[in-house]
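Pilot study result, target chain (312 residues):
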Amino acid sequence: MALVTTTEMFKKAYEGGYAIGAFNVNNMEIVQGITEAAHELNSPIILQASAGARKYANSVYLVKLVEAAIELYPELPIALHLDHGADFQTCKDCVDSGFTSVMIDASSKPFEENIEITKKVVDYAHAHGVVVEAELGTLAGIEDDVKVEEGASSYTNPEDVQEFVNSTGVDSLAIAIGTSHGAYKFKPGTDPKLRFDILEEVEKRLPGFPIVLHGSSSVPQEYVKIINSNGGALKDAIGVPEDQLRKAASMAVCKINIDSDLRLGMTAGIRQTMAEQPDLFDPRGYLKVGRQNVKDIVAHKIKDVLGSDNKA
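Predicted structure:
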């Protein structure tokens, strides 16, 4: 099977009351960990590359790594997605280089300008058989090139969604209901709650339309503890409760983005291995532990949060 778009994935997910995991990739070990878990659980997946990943690894390497996964697991539906494309040219470059899905993020622009930019990307992408995700509302937090102060974030206004989708022809829509980028999503002592009232209203206005949640890592505390006990300093790293993500996946949310959890698992494996084996200097020794953590995290998300196991 070649790379696929998310169209059929999302249709099945919406009808089946589950979500597809969109996992950010930066290197070979992360790609391996994600795809091994998806293969063993027979789950469709989205592998996504941010601007930071493309700068770090180069798009050519990332595309070839994903192509290797497809060769290993030809039965597995895999989409390659651009995460947070900043402008038309970035999206065009990814369409031209083999991505099957792109996100144009003009959410920080005025509403009409967001529509204009998004429609330009949609017109080009659709002409090349590629699907497009856009965003309404702005998430707080820091992750790669996405940096939004908490005071500058804003919830999605449900009254805007129909006009936006109809005017742009976009294929899926990321909305802001309380998630945020990075590992520091909520303040200690608070009771993290997503705005399901907004999601319900969006679902009413866009029946059958696939919704996306960004910034949905749960920041597993076991990995935070390992990192901190081996020289790290992740104070007050708190993520989105998984029961709320499960609820979102049972509604209109068809794609849930997960990045920080993979970073935490990889870093925990490396730090712990290097602390326990100070004479180790072979990268394969500690990277394989990090890779296993990534695989374990993805398997848990697929089975216990997304519900996408045995859906390929």
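One observation from the pilot: The first helix runs from residue 7 to 16. A full batch analysis is planned for the follow-on phase.
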